[in-house]
Amino acid sequence: MQKSFIQVEKGSHFPIQNLPYGIFRKQKDEEPRVGVAIGDYVLDLAVLHESGLLKIEGEQDDSSIFRQRYLNAMMEAGSTVWKAIRKQLQQLLDEGEASLRDDMELRERAFTKIDAVELLLPVEIGDYTDFYASKEHATNVGSMFRGKDQALMPNWTHLPVGYHGRASSVVVSGTEVRRPNGQMKPPGHEFPIFGPSKQLDFELELGWFVGHGNVSGEPIRLEEAEEKIFGLVLVNDWSARDIQAWEYQPLGPFLAKSFATSISPWVVPMDALEPFRVQGPKQEPTPLSYLEHKKAAAFDIQLDVSLKGSTMESIETFISTNFKYMYWSMAQQMSHHTINGCNLRAGDLLASGTISGPEKSERGCLLERTWRGEEPITFSNGDKRVWLEDDDEVVMTGYCQGNGYRVGFGEVRAKIAPALEM
Ligand code: MN
Q1: Going from the N-terminus, what domains does the chain have, and what CATH number goes with each?
Q2: pLDDT in tens, 211-228
Q3: Is 389 helix (H, G, I), strand (E, B) or coil?
Q4: Cα–Cα distance between 33 and 46 in angstroms, integer?
Q5: Chain-centre distance for alpha carbon 404
Q6: How far apart are CA 129 and CA 210, in angstroms?
Q7: Which pLDDT score is estimated for 129?
Q8: Beta bridge partner(s), residue 25
Q9: Read out DSSP for 301-340?
Q10: Predicted pLDDT of residue 59
Q11: What predicted TM-score, i.e. pTM, was given to this entire model?
Q12: Residue 213 is inside which H or E element, if any?
């Protein structure tokens, strides 16, 4: 197993096998730059490039690609460039490689403790598309609203259902999320009312960034889709269920979702997930040929959701599930997205939809986990939850378990602020 000269604690999300990208700064007035997480440290790629140790393939071998507010410049450079950068970093950080290891002056400038930096929203997101790719989730939500017999809509097993989300309100982990105001029509009311959402929920999802997209009119074929993915993040797709229930027909969710979506700051490269590729669920009926996989396309990623309310002493995990349960793969979602000629661009965010598994404890949102309020969750101090309360802090985390190491996503964390008084 490969090891770095940088000490990585057992259970750390960021060993040399991971090397996720992020955007950081040490002080508010400092220009942000591209960094890579290793153990408890962030490695400054601009400094490393200027030292001459890290080289960029292609015509423009200067560090401007790393002196950026967002990762987009690097994404646009294409997979040949990202793969070459990753390969060099895995060499330079190896315990047996002396060039960086023994240059204490350079190490002093290039490494900073992660907890001493500010991590910014890593990508300038052009478009955000949210799917609905978990069969367990779609079946559970469908049975609640339409009954068990019509749980899945007739199209569901034939295509990855999705909708266009809102990119402007995607925020990085740590950003407070304000409870939205809106219109809703509670049961028993003849007319809709206006006020703070009373059914605020989260959705546990994974999202992936398009690294280089496709030309308008030319779909991304299933076999080439993964090559176009720059990397993955954890996504909390906040949802106001009461607003959603009143507004969603016939064009789907709108204000119930667009107030905020939180993502984790570290973008885990596709290559780091390769050892965790597994066969996804059997697809029955066989999808149309443009969606038919010839190889395994699911990934074994353990995911957890925890909550800390203001009267709880410590944070408690109450959902544990896995990305491998997803019925539709990332590649199928991308390929379907573009089959009509729609162009995806560098920096677009695609998300899986709520990730649920077969067990109750594997249901990835409160709507499902509490069965629309019928089965409240009880925490160890006796606190109960059906929906989120003000000051609740929600933390999502995820990792792949390797033999002696973990490839992790860090976390996406946010606290609920009270609604604006209107
Ligand atoms: Mn969602």
Answers
A1: 21-120 (2.30.30.230), 128-417 (3.90.850.10)
A2: 989 999 999 999 999 999
A3: coil
A4: 7
A5: 24
A6: 11
A7: 98
A8: 118
A9: -EEEEEEE-TT-SS-EEEEEEEGGG-SS-HHHHHHHHHTT
A10: 63
A11: 0.97
A12: none
100 Cα–ligand 1 center, Å: 43
C-alpha 401 to ligand 1 mean position (Å): 26
- What size, in residues, is the chain? 422
**Quick count: other Cβ atoms within 10 Å of Cβ 188?**
5
Ligand 1 centroid–CA 352 distance in Å is 7
Both tokens of residue 171? 């925020």
Distance CA 65, CA 70 (A): 10
2-18, pLDDT tens digit by residue? Answer: 999 999 999 999 999 99
Distance CA 8, CA 401 (A): 15
Rounded Cα distance, 66 and 84, in Å:
14
- Distance between Cα 140 and ligand 1 center (Å): 15
Q: Tell how far the Cα of 69 is from the centroid of ligand 1, in angstroms.
A: 27
Alpha helices, DSSP H, located in 28-126: 45-50, 72-76, 79-92, 98-101, 104-110
- pLDDT < 70 positions in the chain: 59
Task: Mention every residue, 6+ apart, whose C-beta is less than 8 A from residue 16.
Answer: 2, 3, 4, 6, 8, 38, 90, 93, 94
The alpha carbon of 411 and the centre of ligand 1 are apart by a number of angstroms equal to 18
Q: Which residues are catalytic?
A: 137
Q: Which long-range contacts (CB under 8 A, 24 or more apart) does 274-277 make?
A: 275/17, 275/400, 275/402, 275/407, 276/300, 276/301, 276/400, 276/402, 276/407
300 token code pair: 């074994």
